[in-house]
Amino acid sequence: MNILMLARNPNLYSHKRLVEAAEQRGHSLDIANTLQCYMNITSHRPAVIYKGEPLRGYDAVIPRIGASVTFYGLAVLRQFEMMGVYPLNESVAIGRSRDKLRSLQLLARDGLGLPVTAFASDPKQTDEVLKIAGGAPVVIKLLEGTQGIGVVLGETHKSAKSVIEAFRGAKVNILVQEFIKEAGGTDIRALVVGDKIVAVMERTGAADDFRSNLHRGGTAKTIKITPEERSTAIRAAKAMGLNVCGVDMLRSNHGPVIMEVNSSPGLEGVEKATGIDVAGKIIEFLEKNAKPGKTKTRGRG
Asked: How far apart are CA 128 and CA 109, in angstroms?
């Protein structure tokens, strides 16, 4: 197979591992900087052009689109979909997962466990929002935040109210969620490929941080998960329409609750914690599924 990866930094661990895994299986994998691609949008010969040459002859495209370039990256990916190139994750599914509010609404629609979450526009509704989330402490999240950035713990009603009013006063959209104290600063990331969980790790935050992101100094180890947690992760991936994703869950007193579904999960933490060749599993999925024009949406939605 000829595979193309859309990524801005070819030197990231995840990207190097995917290249390595593809080449070990006899495939070629090229990397194109997402922002340096440009498009010829025509009815009969749509094209993506990179460094002056059209990108043609690819059997599959792996989108590793950074959160900061989601809009442009999805436009490029849609163009490949319209050209009949098979995407590891479809543009519509990535768009759903990147919209924190929409993703939570879709997960809730499918009956999946979530932290109690409130969303409002008017700062005058702050007291009501805090009441919905169960009162302080609460977790306040920027809708556009990634890797733990833009996530604040409001430990008291007064401090939470101040943070919410400050964000809303600056016209920044936020979610307010209940704080799952019993999780103890740990979460579970389950890597889903196709309809299977291929690797699981438990992440624990730094001693002085309630966030468990490895980018923020957290640590990871392999663990076993319950059948309910396994089912929750797989159903979450299906709700988003993602073939490959990382599902982040907390263990609450009322079962697993989903924090986020990540459409471009990093591979370094989970591969090193578990010893599992996740990159290889992703390439194997493409071997079995990548066929011309097989996209469900063909760029619609």
From this structure: 23
